[in-house]
Amino acid sequence: MPTPYAQYVSDRDPVEVMRESLEAFRRVYAGMPRDRWETPSAPGKWTLRQILVHVTQWEMIFGVRVRLGVGIPNYVVQPLDQDPLMHEAEVVDPATAFDCFEALRAMNLKLAASLRPEQRRAPVTHPERGQIDVNDLLTTLAGHSVHHLLQLEKAVS
Predict the structure, then answer these.
(1) Does the global pTM surpass 0.90?
(2) Which of 8, 16, 12, 4 is nearest to 153 (CA)?
(3) What is the pLDDT of residues 69-120, one digit of tens each?
(4) Secondary structure class of 78 (helix, strand, coil)
(5) What kind and span of H or E run contains 103?
């Protein structure tokens, strides 16, 4: 079963999508009025600050999954529920979240760009999705951030 975020990557290389979305996140962050961060993205939804914290958390989590997929033979992904992690969003300001995201993305990009084709094909087991590979993890990493980037871009426009 392909990652649900594959639609945001399509047939492109996830590394290129990660590179482009980093630049887009920089533009969105720079263009977001500071008083908008506490605005929900839609009625009953997370605030823009919560979205940014969430994206940063999962940049870290997905990046670790890629590293484990490359470094541990037959790595099995630990499924996670995002909601219990969101308590952090109440104490992390947008500047801290963005700085962390930018640094994590830069590090994840260095790793992703260095992977050889056979490393990208390394098998990984996802308990909910079955047999996948490291490239699927990269696609998830790239696509997840684009999914939320679109929400932030909409708020800026």
Answers:
(1) yes
(2) 8
(3) 999 999 999 998 998 888 888 899 999 999 999 999 999 999 999 999 999 9
(4) coil
(5) helix 94-114
